[in-house]
Every structure is written in C-alpha cells, then in structure tokens.
C-alpha cells in the first residue's frame, strides 16, 4: 500500500535498520520505532527511562559544574564522530542540541552519545520547508550536512562564551578550538561541509 511504501522509505526507519546492523559507538540505538498513519514516529529505548536519559543529557551535565578544557575537546571530538557516522551514510540529524546529547556512564558506551532521530532527514531539503529549534539557519539554501555542523558549533560556542564564568572551561582566546568553533558558525558556503571535515579540524586543533 502507499502507506507501507512511505514507511519503508522513511529515513528514520532506514536509519534504525542501519544502526542495528552497524552498532556505532557514539549513537544510541532505539529498541524500536513505531509508525502510525498520520502521526509522528515514536522512538523507544527499552533499557533506559526517559527520566534517566534526561539525567545524563549534556544540558544536565553542564548544570553540575565546571567543564575542563580536556572535557570540552573530548566532547567536541566525540560529537563530530557521532554526527560523522550519520553524514557518511547520507543522513542529517537536524536536531543537535544539549538535551539530545548524553554525557555519562552507559555500559559499553563512550562518554558522549547522540540520540533522538525524530527530525532526521536526507540532505538537500529546501530550508523553507523545515522548521528547526535553531533559528539562526534561515539563510541556508538547503538543509544538508552544514546544518548539523552549525548546530555543533553553536553548542560549543555557548559552552565557551555564553555560560556563567563559573561553568565555562578555562580556554584561552588563542586556543585553536576557538577557530574551529568560529568556522562551524560561518555562513553556509564557508562552513565545513560535513562533520567529518569538522572532526579533522578538531583533531588538528588538539595536536
């Protein structure tokens, strides 16, 4: 049927199948995604309650105390790996923000994990058709991998510039990571093309 075909071609269903097959370290894999006609897809994570996921979010981690320079660089590198996996396989996450990033001890998982694929799409969607939490994107001609790059940059800009001084890491203004963050926030055509390119810049800044 048309509905069945639409479900099979739904990017989030395709992504779930890929996550189950490849088991990438930095992405949380839903137990299932339920699809009902006319309703958004719902993700289910069986071994963790949503309350527990909230407790492990980057937003909650930031509230718990000061972030060190090492933690900042490590989180930056790990997040680009998570998003890079999606980009390598032709997916745009489209909702990268602190509540959707887990920082904490999950068995057999690294320190930083990305989840919540409810807004995942294929690249090169017309920007005017997509509404995002990130209101600084309206001048982008398309929603593609650069959209996620900007979102990553915005998170780390906030961590290094806009949080309370008691929580911000002691990152010197001359530190190379500042330049990487700035590049991620550049206009569309000047931004790193995807998370893999951004991740290489992060690695270079730390070496």
Question: What keyword list fits this structure?
Answer:
two-stranded antiparallel ribbon; globular; two-stranded antiparallel sheet; 207 residues; mainly alpha
Class per helix and strand makeup: mainly alpha
Task: Describe the sheet with the most strands.
Answer: 2 strands, antiparallel
**Beta-strand segment tally:** 6
> How would the global form be characterised?
globular
Give the mean pLDDT. 79
What portion of residues is helical? 40-55%
Number of discrete helical segments: 8
Can you give a write-up of this model?
It is a single chain. The chain starts with a helix and ends with a helix. The radius of gyration is 17 Å and the shape is globular. The strands form three sheets. It has a two-stranded antiparallel ribbon with strand order 1-2. It has a two-stranded antiparallel ribbon with strand order 3-4. Residues 1-8 have low confidence and may be disordered. The protein is 44% helix and 8% strand. With 207 residues, it is mainly alpha-helical. The chain has eight helices and six strands, in the order ααββαααββββααα.
Short description:
The chain has 207 residues and is mainly alpha-helical.
């Amino acid at each position: 049927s048309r509905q069945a075909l639409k479900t099979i071609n739904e990017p989030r269903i395709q992504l779930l199948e890929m996550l189950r097959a490849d088991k990438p370290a930095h992405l949380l894999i839903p137990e299932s995604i339920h699809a009902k006609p006319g309703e958004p897809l719902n993700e289910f994570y069986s071994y963790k309650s949503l309350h527990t996921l909230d407790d492990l979010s980057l937003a909650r981690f930031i509230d718990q105390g000061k972030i060190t320079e090492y933690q900042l660089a490590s989180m930056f590198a790990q997040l680009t790996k998570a998003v890079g996996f999606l980009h390598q396989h032709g997916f745009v996450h489209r909702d990268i923000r602190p509540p959707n990033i887990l920082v904490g001890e999950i068995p057999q998982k690294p320190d930083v994990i990305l989840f919540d694929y409810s807004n995942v799409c294929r690249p090169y969607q017309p920007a005017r058709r997509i509404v995002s939490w990130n209101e600084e994107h309206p001048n982008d001609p398309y929603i593609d991998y650069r959209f996620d790059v900007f979102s990553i940059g915005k998170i780390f800009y906030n961590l290094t510039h806009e949080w309370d001084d008691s929580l911000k890491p002691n990152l010197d203004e001359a530190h190379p990571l500042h330049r990487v963050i700035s590049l991620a926030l550049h206009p569309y055509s000047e931004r790193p093309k995807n998370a893999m390119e951004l991740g290489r810049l992060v690695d270079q800044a730390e070496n």
